[in-house]
Write a structure and sequence with these properties.
Structural class: alpha+beta
CATH topology of one domain: Butyryl-CoA Dehydrogenase, subunit A, domain 3
Shape: elongated
Number of strands: 5
InterPro entries: Claudin (IPR006187), Claudin_CS (IPR017974), PMP22/EMP/MP20/Claudin (IPR004031)
Order of helices and strands: HEEEEHHEHH
Main location: other
CATH architecture of one domain: Up-down Bundle
GO molecular function, one term: structural molecule activity
Subcellular location: Cell junction, Tight junction; Cell membrane
Function: Claudins function as major constituents of the tight junction complexes that regulate the permeability of epithelia.
Length: about 230
Amino acid sequence: MRAKLEVFATVLGFIGLIGTVVVTAIPMWRVSAFIGANIIVMEELWEGLWMNCYRQADIKMQCKVYDSLLILPPELQAARGLMCVSIVLVVISLSVTGCGTKKSSCCDDDMKSKNITIALGGSLYLLSCLTTLIPVSWVGHTVIRNFYNTQVMDSQKRELGEALFLGWATSGILLIAGIIFLFSYCKRSSKEEEPSTEMSLMAGKDGLKANSVYLERTPSSFYKQQEYV
């Protein structure tokens, strides 16, 4: 059962890796808000970490890479770095936990080394969850705050893009994967401690037997005299 959980967590790790790459790449972090009585909208704006895209009616989408990093707001600048760190962490977590699973041939049969690697991989999954959750939540908070800010013009207001919802789902998947691997580590370590305690009890009994002195009864001289009588 534990081996199946580890395989399931590894699959979740692959899904989390795909999710972080997609969230980092797609330009739908912030989308234009349709505010006002005009129902017909001729233009839609998408803003991402690397480019912004314009989609007009009956015209193909046109995307343009940002000319400079400095023109981006602070939350998008931080999101760039954190999402790249998250991708690297998920790749490392997959490699480390792949070596620590029971079905892996790495580390031979050294369960202690496998336990250390699987605990390290689970911790990295939790760290990658944070590096994904923080930028997504930061951008989402900024979008909601500006949307309800009366001092911001309607043309500058944005709505939550699909990338934010996908980022929240991806961080949840990474969280579940990390918890499963740490749970597997706790179960393994507890099972390793049980035989060691039994061995220590057996060793203690053997020591008591070795230290005990066997006293042999020898017949006394008075008993020998009574035999003659």
